[in-house]
Every structure is written in structure tokens, then in C-alpha cells.
Amino acid sequence: MAALNTDLYELTMAAGFFVAGKAEEIATFELSVRRLPANRNFLIAAGLEQAVEYLSGLRFEKDEIDYLRSLSQFSRVPDEFFRYLSGLRFRGDVFAMPEGTPVFPGEPLLIVRGPLIEAQIVETFLLSTIAFQTTIASKAARCVIAAQGRSIVEFGSRRAHSSGAGPLAARAAYLSGCTGTSNAEAGLKYGIPVFGTAAHSWTMAFQTEEQSFRSLQRLLGENTIYLVDTYDTLEGARLAAQLGPPILGVRLDSGDLVTYSRQVRQILDEAGLRTTQIMVTNDLNEARIAHLLSSGAPIDSFGVGTELSTSADAPALSAVYKLVELQAGQSHIYTAKYSDNKATLPGAKQVYRFPDRDVMALQNECSGYSEADPLLRPVLDKGKPVTSYPFLKELRENAMSAIQELPSDLRRIDQACQRRVDLSPQLRSLGDDLRNSRQLVTK
Amino acid sequence: MAALNTDLYELTMAAGFFVAGKAEEIATFELSVRRLPANRNFLIAAGLEQAVEYLSGLRFEKDEIDYLRSLSQFSRVPDEFFRYLSGLRFRGDVFAMPEGTPVFPGEPLLIVRGPLIEAQIVETFLLSTIAFQTTIASKAARCVIAAQGRSIVEFGSRRAHSSGAGPLAARAAYLSGCTGTSNAEAGLKYGIPVFGTAAHSWTMAFQTEEQSFRSLQRLLGENTIYLVDTYDTLEGARLAAQLGPPILGVRLDSGDLVTYSRQVRQILDEAGLRTTQIMVTNDLNEARIAHLLSSGAPIDSFGVGTELSTSADAPALSAVYKLVELQAGQSHIYTAKYSDNKATLPGAKQVYRFPDRDVMALQNECSGYSEADPLLRPVLDKGKPVTSYPFLKELRENAMSAIQELPSDLRRIDQACQRRVDLSPQLRSLGDDLRNSRQLVTK
């Protein structure tokens, strides 16, 4: 039912455009983020693969069309529209920043150019899909930076916003450099490494903690990680040390992780288990990870759950999808809105990245920015993929390099820093001209 | 692929329980919320219908089992386990609070009692499904309280955490008293009233605002709501007034909504459009709604998006799923964990609600609470529904009454208030006994 999974007003507008004879006008919409949340110096673009899958499979089922017919909002709409809907497929062009690209406010992550109705009704799905994964990838990048090369595993499926969001959060977190996820479906679907051994219920389901640890070791061998805090962290750690190899590590999930990790390290070391790892979990985020490491806690890896899968400090982005151009027969108009504090810039854009700044220019502008790579690249051509979609692993490597190459001030997690984003003179003057005239007909 | 959509450790534990001969032990798990987020005095239980659907349809597909076989964590697991998985269905009993019930920290929303492996592996899905909808329903209840009888429409699909979360957020918001949603799929799937007329792109797609308004009026008749702020709010409102009936209302989406709503009300009234409604949107939440109304803004309805569909101030709950009992042959043990600040109470529980307090008692306790209704009721019996699932509309009416009947201090949105939740003497002494002995074998 993907096509109906949109805001109703997309569909009333579709009917209105159809009735007004505007179905075949060619619209250009841009998806961008208005402002950065408080604790973000950059975002990491993500979710494009799912957006492309959606656009490629877009269609209305019969029950969806029957439902629309039944609504009072559609009582004046002619039958032709519903026939049109049943044959509707997405035939537009899409340009986008590759997943893993750092992105800044106002810069389009995605541009859709196609028949007005098709380009309009996909707004809601594209916004939720791209904004959600971008939210998570951006949070994950901060956690990865905080961990200074130590491993971060995404553990947040149980706190994700519905079961469907879990694997997608895992995907976005992996894109930004997390080592893997606890979500098994994400492992199968996206090829992400999966981690996890046992919960407190495992310990509690045996008559003694020792029985539970011995059973886990028999099951997992060198993959064994004991969760040691069910009853008493240090007793649990001593038990793990006493059982000896094979063992991969122990996990701490409560209490003062600085003190416990030191004490547990000592217990393991004294038993000769110097390579046995200490993993910690328990409401971690980038600030707590940074604090643990700056306190000298001997931690080898972090499991980050809730804060990562919900981006708890900034769970939503001000992502918008705005009409910037419209072509009707011979007339080509640029469009923008001028609502208080919510004005937009007209015209399809391109973004050029320089070491110290980005420049936004018009897409069709013969710019002087040829020394910089354009960030937006063709993805769909009349609804068909331009190339096969890159592997997630490859996107992840690019993302990690791109984050590494950002100026160090932007990569700070404890201090705000604003990227300079310039407008090309042509884009600026188009915006000014349009504000005076409302809608600018060109050509 | 629902069965694999879980944390890997659920499945390694399943394998371990199988190998240890514990597959047929009967476990009881409780799903509850540890603490309330900062701005919540109560939660509204939601998501049970989707949880029941999941449990009823639980099964592993061949590709999911093949995937598990391929993982190093399963290299020592015998073939019998994978055969067992392919035949696994959920045959447990479920007790739950009906959707729409106000719930407080520590109180089980859901109890699962069934074969250990089945009851264990459903943890992740149940947590994400119930915690997410409960999060949204709880936020929605606050918005509805703030609106003092005015209508709230859920508009947040575009900011929901993935496209799948949008309809579920709409469902949870409706449960708590919202009037409807913008999400068309939620309308079809859950029978929720749907709303929405046009976006800024509608206005921008016509040569003039007037053309766009006239086309909308022709399309929607008495359902017409003009979005008036694309270029200039007051000009837009004057245009709407000038076009006259049929008109349902105007929507304001930017700027100072107190001032604009007053000015627009005057424009409409002077044109004789006294019944024409004013709807407002623009990053609303319960505090802003309360502020608008206390400022005397003449607003008839509110569209709430991001803050509602992500519960932006509290996007996650500390929801947990804990083993409380385990029955193996003749031995019946109560279980709990004692991790720092994360201790749990043993034994399956029942919750009794009195006007001024709740009492948590053991489920099997012959309590003296017969004058109060037990909140947890049987939902599944050996995997089969006990009754047909109630209609959402009916659950919504019950939810709205239950919220209305809460003590007025709890219903305040600007002040914290804690519900008294007592433990029965038997529950308290079981907890104390167990803490001393780790695991208490009874019977």
C-alpha cells in the first residue's frame, strides 16, 4: 500500500492538478533541511536506496483507489482521475547526494523533476524515509567520532519507532561507521555484521549464574561475551575470569562504568585474560562515550541503543520538499514561498564543495566552480536507475572518509560550528527578482 | 521477515535454551516502563493490536533460517535447532492492559507466558511496537488536554521515523483523542478520519494565488481550507474572504499565530464568514497550543506534526521486558535482576486501580482488592485470541474517558505529579525474599 502511505493533501492536490489540466506539467521539487538541530554541526545524507525502491515500485492498488473514491474530499472528482491513478507510475528524474555525504542546511539532498502529480505525491514518503535515516546517520557519526576508533554497535531496535524502523536505523548507523548492529533482519537484508550474545533473562533462566555462563561458553566458544551485571558486576566478572578461555569479552550494563570497567579489567588481567574485551552498554550517547574515554575507562567497545535508534536529543529534522520550478508547455516558471521565517530559494540547485565552504548554484548555471565536484548526481532517468545502486559497504567507506575530511571544528561533538554555504550570484539574484515579482516566467 | 526482525541475542539464547533442554520450560515475561520521561505524568498504553498480529503470525522463513546457519555465532548449534525454528509458532498466553489505559512506571502493560524460546524471541518486536505507540499516544493525550475540546489533527507522517511509523503514529494519536490524521493509509487501514487540502506547492503551481484558490474551491466545495501564508498571510486571508462560500476554513502555517489568527478572524468576520474556521500548524506542541489558547487566539483546530509523530521532547521510553517466573517440570522459580538502579520485581503481576492510587499485586494472589477492576486482561490463550479485537473507535472512547477520570493534578501538562503505586504485601515480601536468595524455588 505504499502509494496511499502519504498525506491526503498530496492526493487532493493530485486530483486538483488533474482537473486543472496540469497533470503533464513538469515540476522540480527539492528536499532539504531548513536548520541544523542544536547538537549537530553537519548531517550525513542517508536513505536514498529506500527512496529509489519506493519510486521504482510506486503504484496504487485497487483498494486504495476505492478508498479515495469513498471520501467526501473526492466527491467532485471525475472518474478519469481514478483511472489515471490506477495507471500511475513514477517516470521522473532524480538527482541526489550519494548516501554518506555530509550535508548542510538549505542544500538539496534530493531533487525530483517529473510530471507534477508524480513529483507531488511522493513528498511524504521521501521526507520520512530520507529524513529518518539522515537523522540516525548524523547521530551515529557523532558517536563514532566520540569512540576514537573503538567499535560502536547499534543496539537500538527495541526502542526504535516501530519494528520497521529498527533495521533502517541499523543501516543508517552502519553507513556512518558503526561496526554493526544487534538487528538480525538488518544483517540479512543489508549485509551488516550482527552482534549479540545474551540478555539478563539468560542468566536468570538458570539455577545459578555459573550454569548460565558455562552454557553460553559451550554455545558460543570464542564468540562468548558474558553479561556480568545481573546480580553483582564484580562477582560476575570473577566468574567469567574463573571459567577462562574461550572468551571474547564481558559486557557491563549498569552502574558506574568507569569504576566497574577498571575493576573488571583488573580481574581479567589477573586471570591472564589480557585480550578479553570489555563492552559497555546502558543509555550511552556520544557525550557519555567521550566522558568514559576521557576518564581513562579501559573500554573496548560500546553498544549504543535508544539514543542512536531514536536520535534522542534531536529526533527530527526540519526537512522540507519544496517546489522550485514548473514547466508548462512553453512557459518555465521559478517558484518560491515567502512565509515568515520559512522562505525558500527558487530554481533547481547544485552544490559544490570546497575545503572551507560549499557553494549552492543553479543546476543549469554555467558556473565557475569546475574545480569542485558537484555533489548532486543523477540517480533516476525517467524513472529508471542510471546505474546499479552502490553496495552499502562502499558507501560506508566513502562516508567515513568524508567525515574524516571535514574541517576539525565541524567534527567536534561538544562545540557548535557553522559551515559556510555561499550562494552563487545567479542564484542570489534569481531569488531577489522572484521575491519582487512572485513568480518569474522565463524563456 | 518478522521473526528475524529481532535482536540477534534473542536467537543465540534460543539456540542455547534449546541445547540446554530448556525449550519447553514455561517462562513469564513482563513488559513495563521503568521511569516516566520528564514531561509525562502518565502514559497511555497502545500498540497491542499490532503486537497480537505479530504473535499470531510469527514464523521463520527459509532464507531467515539459512542466514542464521551462516553466522559464526551459530556454528556449534545442531541441525535440530534450525528444524525446530522452522516449525516454531507462538503458543503462549498473553495478558495486557487494553489500549487506551493510563499506565504508570513499573506496571506491566503486557505479560507473556509461554515456552521459554517463544516468549524470549518476541522481546524486541513487542518492545518497539508497544513502546512506540505508547510514546505517541501519551504525547497525543497531552496535546488533546491542551486543546480544551478543540480539534487536533495528526499531521506528522513526513517526520515520522520511516514511512511505516507514520500510520502507526496516526493510530496512536487517534486513540488518545485526536480527531484524525493526514495519513491516507491510516485512514484505509485503521478507519481513522483523514484531513488535508493543499500545500504551498499548490499555490505556487498556479500563475496567481487567486487561480490556485479558485481551483481548490471548485475541487473541494464545502471541504475547502485555504493555506493562506504562501506569500502574505493577510493578503491570502483577504482573498479567501473575497471568494466567499463554499469554504470550511483557512490554515495559517507561519509567523505569529496569535496576531495573525486575530487579524484573519476579523477579515473573515467582516466578510460575513463567521463560521469559517481557522486552523493553525507550524511546529506545534501541547505547550504552544496552551499558550495560543491562553493568549485568546481565535483558533478552531490544530494540526500537530513533528512533535506528535516523534514525541520530540521524549522520543523514547525506558521500556523493558523482564523474566519474572520460570517453570521447569515440578520446579517453579521466581526471577529478578539486581543490577544497580535497574532492579526488577519477581512474579507475574496484576494492577488494581483505585481513585487515588494503583496497587500492584501478584497475579495469583488472593488479594483483598476485589472492589477494583484488574487492569490486565487475557488477550491470547495458547496463541489464540480470547475475543475478537475491539474496534479502534471504541478503544478511543474508553481512552478519552479514562484520561478524563484521572485526578486533575495528573492531567496537568505544565506540572509534574506522581501517581501513587503501592505494592501488595505479598509482592513486596517475595521481592525481599528473592533478593536474599537470588532465585526462589517454590511449589
CATH topology of the largest domain in chain A: nicotinate phosphoribosyltransferase
Helical amount of chain A: 25-40%
Number of E strands of chain A: 19
Oligomer: homodimer
In CATH, what is the homologous superfamily of the largest domain in chain A? Answer: nicotinate phosphoribosyltransferase
Distance between the termini of chain A: 40 Å
Give the class of chain A from helix and strand content and strand pairing. Answer: alpha/beta
Shape of chain A: elongated
- Summed up, the domain count of chain A is 2
Radius of gyration of chain A: 26 Å
Largest interface, with counts of residues having CB < 8 Å to the other chain, equals:
A-B, 119 and 119 residues
The tally of helices of chain A reads: 16
Commentary on this structure:
2 copies of one chain form a homodimer. By secondary structure, the first copy, chain A, is an alpha/beta fold. Chain A has 2 domains: 2-135 and 314-442, nicotinate phosphoribosyltransferase (Alpha-Beta Barrel), CATH 3.20.140.10; 196-282, Aldolase class I (TIM Barrel), CATH 3.20.20. Chain A contains 16 helices and 19 strands. Chain A has an 8-stranded antiparallel β-sheet. In chain A, helix 13 (286-294) links the parallel strand 10 and strand 11 (301-304). In chain A, helix 6 packs across helix 7. At the A-B interface, helix 1, helix 3, helix 6, helix 7 and helix 8 of A face helix 1, helix 3, helix 6, helix 7 and helix 8 of B.
